[in-house]
Amino acid sequence: MQTSKSSLASLTLGAIGVVYGDIGTSVLYTLKEVFGTGHVPFTPDNVYGVLSIVFWTLTIIVSIKYVVLVLRADNNGEGGLVAMLALASQSVKDKAPGLRKWMLAIGIFGTCLFYGDGVITPAITVLSAVEGLDVVSPAFRRAVIPLTLVILLGLFLLQRHGTAGIGRFFGPVMVLWFIAIGVLGAYHIVDHPEILFALSPHHALRFIVHHPGITFIILGAVVLCVTGGEALYADMGHFGKQPIRLAWFSIVMPALTLNYFGQGALLLAEPEAVRGIAGISIVTGQEDFIVTPLEVTAEEV
Question: What's the distance, CA 111 to chain centroid?
Fold first, then answer.
């Protein structure tokens, strides 16, 4: 029994490092991209609405769809689009050969999309993280691209050590990351606990009803909060269902929720916190802030 518990802990730690590395860093750019479109008027109601959409996207797409439902569709313990394609193809092989051909084509297309996501997402994630140096000092601006390339090269070179080696290395790192973003989010939530009202889905529904066109446009940015969610299913053969589910519900989901809501609380308290995003109009009860990358000015309405 002790060995079983030790194995579960080890697999859970590895899952945190490998499976959740992508979705765990989505907090760096999701809200920035949503409000950076320039289509969303920056009002407290819209902050509540966007946060509610993000939370329920995480809940429905990752918690319910992937963690609860899709992980059940394993092919002898293996997951991923190819495994799902094999299961679906086998079920209709004798009954509908024509349908089987279409399913194979769709499965191959989906696999291509997965590989495309695997290529572009690391670049976006690392670049977003390194861009934080520009906040520390503008002197680092020229070093952002070269440093990003060096980090990406190092990460891809590490992949030759296999999933187990990467999991042992990045597991503790990602645990510290999730603890850090959770604590930072909780810090701001304590100052403005009213932001937790955004947990109610009615804020998301109200935003969608009042801004249907804007909602359609920003969904391309909101979906960033679930980037890497497909890794839960694709990496099931490496870690198993239980460790992936345990890692999500015990560490990853709570940390992401705290951080997103902490960002919302920060934006309500300090609208100028989004000063790095050009052209956003921040409408509050008394002042209209026009945010530029260099400064924040306030004009009486």
Answer: 20
Q: How far apart are CA 60 and CA 66, in angstroms?
A: 9
pLDDT tens profile 31-42:
888 877 667 877
Predicted local distance difference test score (pLDDT) of residue 272: 64
Supply the angle between the helices 253-269 and 44-57 in degrees, to the nearest 10. 170
* This model's pTM is above 0.85: no
pLDDT for residue 83 is more than 70: yes
